[in-house]
Design a protein that fits this description.
Layout lengths: L1 H10 L1 H13 L2 H21 L6 H20 L3 H4 L1 H13 L11 H6 L1 H28 L2 H41 L1
Helix pairs in contact: 2-3, 3-4, 6-8, 8-9
Length: 185
């Protein structure tokens, strides 16, 4: 779990930097410039320390630089606000792969309800696409405070609620299956 959280932090570092700098300065252009610089510094640090760079690292750097520069050149924050949508769509596409979730689940789930894990994987993909579309809708308004609320509260909250629902549903279904198996034995 710690490794997953660390990877999420690395992947969303530029968005976190953007939000933090914007919260302190209230200036989109400064926040965008610092986010671009942070993303480039993160990339350079990884190269200098010999870390293996995945495709996602290159993709994130390209998106941050291209959308960030578009924001700086046009003074239009909507470009940089679109970045989380690209991330949500990319993750959603990966989640469309059948069985992607199975490797993250404990054996009690994979042994008892693998078909539900597959269905949950598709539900997670749908959630990612919905959050990406929601981000686009919010970003197009140009209201950065609303966007910051959406990204930091709504998007994260939706994932927490989805995880909690999945946890409860899986526990209930597994408990029923184990009780049914015990009564047959």
């Amino acid at each position: 779990m710690a490794n997953v959280l660390r990877q999420l932090f690395v992947d969303f570092f530029s968005a976190i930097v953007f939000l933090a700098v914007y919260a302190v300065t209230g200036d989109v252009l400064i926040a965008t410039g610092v986010a671009i610089a942070g993303s480039i510094a993160q990339f350079v640090h990884a190269r200098l320390t010999g870390k293996k760079l995945e495709f996602m690292t290159y993709a994130i750097l390209a998106v941050v630089v291209v959308l960030g520069c578009a924001t700086l050149l046009t003074s239009d924050p909507r470009f940089v606000l679109m970045k989380p949508s690209i991330g949500h769509f990319a993750v959603g596409l990966v989640m469309l792969q059948r069985g992607w979730m199975l490797r993250y689940l404990p054996p009690i789930v994979t042994d008892n309800i693998p078909e539900y894990a597959n269905a949950a994987g598709y539900a997670w993909a749908a959630l990612m696409f919905a959050l990406g579309i929601g981000n686009i809708a919010i970003a197009m308004t140009g209201d950065i405070k609303l966007w910051a609320f959406y990204i930091s509260v709504v998007a994260i909250g939706a994932k927490i609620v989805a995880f909690a629902i999945q946890y409860v549903v899986f526990r209930v279904i597994i408990a029923r299956r184990l009780r049914a198996a015990a009564t047959r034995a």
